[in-house]
Each structure stands twice: as structure tokens, then as C-alpha cells.
Amino acid sequence: MSTDLKEALFAFTLRLGDTSLVLGHRLSEWCGHAPELEEDIALTNVALDLVGHARMLLTYAGELEGKGRDEDRLAYRRDVFDYRNHLLVEQPNRDFGHTIVRQFLHDAWAVELYGRLCASTDETLAGIAAKAVKEVRYHVRHSGDWLVRLGDGTEISHAKVADALGRLWPYTGEMFERDEAEQALVAAGILPDPAELKAAWTARVEAVLGEATLDRPADGWMQKGGRRGEHSEHLGYLLAEMQFLPRAYPDANW
Amino acid sequence: MYTQGLDAKTEQGAQPSPRLVTEDEARLQGRFQERVDAEEKIEPRDWMPEGYRRTLVRQISQHAHSEIVGMLPEGNWVTRAPTLRRKVALLAKVQDEGGHGLYLYSAAETLGVSRDELVGQLLAGKAKYSSIFNYPTPTWADIGAIGWLVDGAAIMNQVPLCRCSYGPYARAMVRICREESFHQRQGYELMLALAQGTPEQKRMAQDALNRWWWPSLMMFGPSDEQSAHSSQNMAWKIKRFSNDELRQRFVDATVPQAEFLGLTIPDPELRFNAGTGHYEFGAIDWTEFNEILKGNGPCNRERIEARRKAWDDGAWVREAAVAHAAKRQQCALKKAG
Fold first, then answer.
1. Which residues from B are below 8 Å from A21, CB to CB?
2. In this predicted model, what pLDDT tens digit does every residue of B169-209 receive, in sequence order?
């Protein structure tokens, strides 16, 4: 693999790894506080899967980079401007409705992405995707089913998820951005075509929104920047919490 | 996890009420006791004495509540676990506790109570749960100490429950014990990393041991002289060993583990008696234990508040799920009609 391609793949893997980690962190905040016991277990389980994906992806990113950074070095020793996750996943949980909408918009993307990455010409990435896709299929069923229940539940639940959908929709554009370096990865058959990915995501999202009796928000101005390290105010607090121990005791092994 | 305080004398419910027993009942009770004595399992549809049923409902539901409340002190560190491997292990552990709660509530339901009813008692502050979870987890080492000591004590208590005379409880305990012993090893391994780490990490580990040691010994419940229901529960084979026997077993198993870690157990009277082959330990401060049972522990209020908040905040979600299910059912009926 050429150096350029390797660098591009490092950047992509880091983005996907960070996105998984930050979303896993957000879900883990629910641990012990969900609306019912079954959901406590389910949300924790999805968090567990996502952190698992992050570990594989960050480990691979560290190998691609070749500077000796492992999963923990990458997760715990980078500041906000070096994080590359989507802005969507760093948005706070607010309530169960927001959490489910955020999760579904992400899961619908992840299931389409990993499904295609299984055929990536990069064997490691394809291997990670093959493992992840089995799990994200459950995730999208879980978040999609809940979105339908809440959208087509009571007036209150409908209003809450409609509000969340309007609020979070502007963060979905970022999932389909591809910079020049990533275009090269698409050309090399390492990454799927973003236009086709978007079409598949849209179809999936529209089907579930229809069943949930929710209107699809219009594609207006889209928030961007997470993939380049330009984040909301929320991420700093998340990292401060997550990174506290390795920062406070830099020489310690845990 | 496990509930202690089950045998405190203030407890209601286990003593058979003083009333006349009919001839039929006497015959049924005799037959019941024969089956228990023969180590047969009692199943949900079998006849059982009312006291047996009440004792089991109380014990199993307290155990379930303990699992659920126990998610809070450990969940407190999920977002701050210091490596991704530790984070995944802790998430999986807390998820296991939730799963234990779920199948323990199911086991309790086989005795004719509903989960909502039991959860309602917990939220109303009427039900007990293990008071060990009313202690806080201020440092990361507390996660190790809980795994090592609290789960360690739980295993001592729970392994005999795998042979409990009530089938659904015994079967739930088989799975729970398997997972708990994994948690215990994980906790010990976490403590080992700290004990072998920097001076600050070692200090953290010792501090956690200092705070968790005595509460862990209290998990076995009052001493045998103070324990109200032991003999009846033993006859029913709900309980197999006395509180003091189990506590001694725990001390004997744990002291060498602490020595291996290079940590000091906070008991100046602790010593090995070569004659008996057991460790002798200092007197337990039951005043603290009783105060925590009364609700005066450092976290009693916070734990119940957290459970109530989760329940109240989730009300609209549960209502939506019910409303949606009803709509679906109506649609299905219309189609069928």
C-alpha cells in the first residue's frame, strides 16, 4: 500500500474508531439509569459492542500510523482537536428519546457501512467489518424498533422523538462526507461509494420513520467539523471524564 | 451480589403464623418436608408451606434488588475506567448484574408476586437490599475491591444456594455463581495491577481494602446467636450453612489473597490459629451495620433516589411502549376480522 493510501486509511480508521468510542461512552452513561431493566441491559450491551469495535479500529489505526500508539494511547491521550468522531455521537443523551434517535441515525449508517466494508480490499478492515456487522444488525433493529414504539406510541412520546429528530438531523450530513484522501480509498476498493451508502441509509431511515409516523426533516444546513477535529463543547467534558485516570497518573499501568 | 440482613430479628414474614393446622395441612407439610429431606426440588406448582413461600419471596427479591442497586456503585466508574479493556470488562460485569436481577425477579414471580410489585416496594423504600451498596466508590480501586471482596463474599453465600430446595432459585443461582466467580477473579486481577503498580496505585488499593473489609464481613449477616430464622431455613434447605460458618470460610480464603497482594487487612486482632487451622478476627462493629440497615449509610438515599429517578424519567417510555403494543394488537385484530 502506498504511503498516501496508508495515511488516508489511518485517518478513516481513526474516524470510525473515535465515532464508535464516543457513542459507546454516551450509551454507557445510561448504565443503571434506563427506563426499564431490559433496556439497561440492552443499552449496556450496545455500548459494550461499540467500545469493542473502537478497540479493534484504534488498534488497527495505531498499526497503520506506525508510531507505536496502541488503543489506549489513542483513546486516552488525545485532546478534543485530535478526536475525529462525528458530531452526532458526541451530542448529549438528554432523554431516552434523544438517545434512541441519535442511535438509530447512527446504526442505520453503521449497518450499511460495515455491510459494504466486508468486501473491502483491505483485509484487516474487512475482518473488523465482518465481526461488527453481525452486532450492528441487532443495534439497528433495537433502535429502529424503539423509534417506531416512541413515534407511534403516545402524543408525548411522539412529540419528544419528533423534537429529537429535528435537533439531530443536521448532524447526519457529516456521515457521508469524503475528502480527497478518502476518494482515493474509494477508488482502491477499500471504502464503499459514499453516494450509494447515502442512498441505502436514506431508504432505511425513511422506512422506519414512516412506520414511526414521523416526518423526515428537510435536508437544510448540515453541521460539520467533527471529522476534522472541530467539535461541540460537549466533547471536552466527555474526554475529561473518560481520560481522568491516565491523565492524573501518567506513569501508571492499569 | 447478595443480601444480608435477611435474618435480622426485626424482619417479618418467615415465622409460621400461630394458628391451628388442619389434618390435611399437617399431612401436606409432612410430605413436603420428606421431599426436602430427600433433596428433591420443590417446583412452582407444588404445595409448599406459606412461610416457605414468604421466606423465598423475601430472599429472592432482596437478592434481585441488590443486583439492581449494585449496578450503581460500579456503574459510577464505567465512564472513567482507565483502559478500554477495563472499560469493556466493567460494562460486561454491570450488564451481568442486570441480568442476574432479571432472572431473580423471574424466579420470584414463580412464587406468585409480580416484578412491578417487587420493584414498587424497592422504590417505596420498603424492601431491603444488600447494605454493602450503600457505601460509595470514590476511587478506581473500589471497583477492584468490590469484585474481589464483595463478589468473593457473595460467592461464599451463593454457592450453597445452588442446592437450595426451591428449583427455580437453585437453577438461577447456578448461572449467577458461574458469572460471579469470573467477576471475583477480575476484581482480584485489577487489585493485583494496582498493588504491583506505582506507590500511588498501591495506596489506592490499600485504601479500598481498608474501607471494604469490614462491610464485606457484615455481608454474611448477624452472628449465629443473633440470627432469627436460621434453623427453620436450614430445615427447609434454603440455607445450608450458618452466617458465622460462611464468614469464617471467607476470612480463611481471603487473608492469604491479601498477603499475596502485599496489602494489610485492617484488623489488628487478625491472626492465624494453627490449632484450628482458621484465622481469628476482631469483633465486628454491628452498630454501623444496624445504622446502615436503618437508612443511615453514606449512600442509602442516593441509591434509592437514583432508582426512583430512572423509573420516573422512564415512565413516558414505558407508557409509549404499552400504547404502541395496543395499537399493533388492534391492527392485527382488524386484519383477522
1. 84
2. 999 999 999 999 999 999 999 999 999 999 999 999 999 99
Chains A, B: CB pairs < 8 Å: 137
For the segment B233-242, what is each residue's pLDDT rounded down to a tens digit?
A: 999 999 899 9
For the cut 80, the answer to whether the pLDDT of residue B11 exceeds it is no
DSSP-assigned letter for residue A175: G
Name chain A contacts of B186, Cβ cutoff 8 Å.
Answer: none
The pLDDT tens digits for B101-119 are 999 999 999 999 999 999 9
CB contact under 8 A, B200 and A252: yes
Mean pLDDT of the A33-47 span: 96
Does residue B301 carry a pLDDT above 50? yes
- Please report where in the chains the cell 414498587 appears, as a residue: B120
Complex-level ipTM: 0.97
Stretch 315-334 of chain B: residues touching chain A, C-beta under 8 Å: 315-321, 323-325, 327
Of B98, B105, B317, the CB nearest to A35: B317
Pick A154's closest partner by Cβ from B94, B95, B320.
Answer: B320
Question: According to the model, what pLDDT value does residue B225 have?
Answer: 83
Closest chain A residue to B105, measured at CA: A37
Contact B84 A34 (CB under 8 A): no
Q: At what angle do helices B151-158 and B167-195 cross, to 10 degrees?
A: 150
pLDDT one-digit tens code per residue, A143-186: 999 999 999 999 999 999 999 999 999 999 999 999 999 999 99
A237 interfaces chain B, CB cutoff of 8 Å: no
B75 Cβ under 8 Å from any chain A Cβ: yes
Tell me the DSSP string of B150-218: IHHHHHHHHGGGGG-SBHHHHHHHHHHHHHHHHHHHHHHHHHHHHHTS-HHHHHHHHHHHHHHHHHHHH
pLDDT value, residue B18:
54
Residue B278 β-bridge partners: B273
Judging contacts by C-beta atoms under 8 Å, the chain A residues touching residue B105 are 37
Do residues A216 and A209 make contact, with C-beta atoms less than 8 angstroms apart?
yes
CA distances from A4 to A52, A182, A185, A188, B29 (A): 28, 10, 10, 12, 81
Instruction: Please tell me the distance from the alpha carbon of residue B107 to that of residue B172, in angstroms, as a whole number.
Output: 7
Average pLDDT over residues B231-256: 94
CB-nearest to A152 from B71, B85, B327 is B327
How far apart CA A99 and CA A143 sit, in angstroms, is 9
pLDDT for B7 equals 42
What is the spatial distance between Cα B316 and Cα A95, in angstroms, rounded to a whole number? 11
Closest Cα partner for A109 from A14, A202, A208? A202
A3-215+225-248 CATH: 1.20.1260.10
